[in-house]
Amino acid sequence: MPGAPLLQQLIDSFCCLPGVGPKTAQRMAFHLLERDREGGRQLSAVLLQAMDDIGHCQRCRTLTEEALCQLCANDQRDDAQLCIVETPADVLAIEQATDYRGRYFVLGGRLSPLDGIGPREIGLDQLAVLLAEGRVQELILATNPTVEGEATAQYISDMAAGQDIPATRIAHGIPLGGELEYIDGGTLAHAFSGRRKVGF
For residue range 167-183, what is the model confidence (pLDDT) as tens digits? Predict the structure, then answer.
């Protein structure tokens, strides 16, 4: 807010971060000013550079400083598998937790007609071009298990079917170590519908 004291502007600026309310923003501002001014300078320099230099990968749409991200530039990745995710954070989560070696496509959201988010807003025109290239042999749908995420997955599955590309959906269900009595109904329903054969 222009005209406000600089301290208040600093506090208000921290409030733009997700999950940061006025009290947390105030603690952050006071911590930097009272205990870590050098850290604050480093933060501001890196933040400014990141805002100026980080954009989107031309192929998969994740965040990167280059025209192609490191994953898309890596010729050891499997072009036959394409994993569809909602955010760049999802790419990082999959890379850290799995041994998946295929490619990614980042939607940057999910279909939500009420919010004015249609196929073009999440790059499905660009995805259609990728699918038409003929390299993708399996589409892995890793959108979130929300109503919008499921609708987005179904829409993309229909796109893949039009190109004769099989689409698979990542499993959703009971977390490892979870107990049935504490699992919500929606998660339990997903777990039942996604059950698989065990044994012989």
Answer: 999 887 777 777 777 77
pLDDT in tens, 120-138: 999 999 999 999 999 999 9
The rounded Cα 127 to chain-centroid distance in angstroms is 16
What CA–CA distance (Å, rounded) separates 32 from 30? 5
Task: Judge residue 113's burial from the number of C-beta atoms within 10 Å of its C-beta, 0-12 exposed, 13-18 middle, 19 or more buried.
Answer: exposed
- Please give the Cα distance from 157 to 160 (Å, whole number): 5
Residues 6 or more apart whose CB falls under 8 angstroms from that of 79 comprise: 102, 103, 135, 136
Looking only at the bridges linking them, the beta strands covering 63-64 and 55-56 are antiparallel
Q: Can you list the domains of the chain with their CATH numbers?
A: 76-169 (3.40.1360.10)
Quickly list DSSP for 14-35.
HTTSTT--HHHHHHHHHHHHHH
pTM of the model: 0.85
Helix axes 6-14 and 22-35, enclosed angle (nearest 10):
120
**Start-end of H helices in 2-104:** 6-14, 22-35, 37-53, 70-73, 88-97
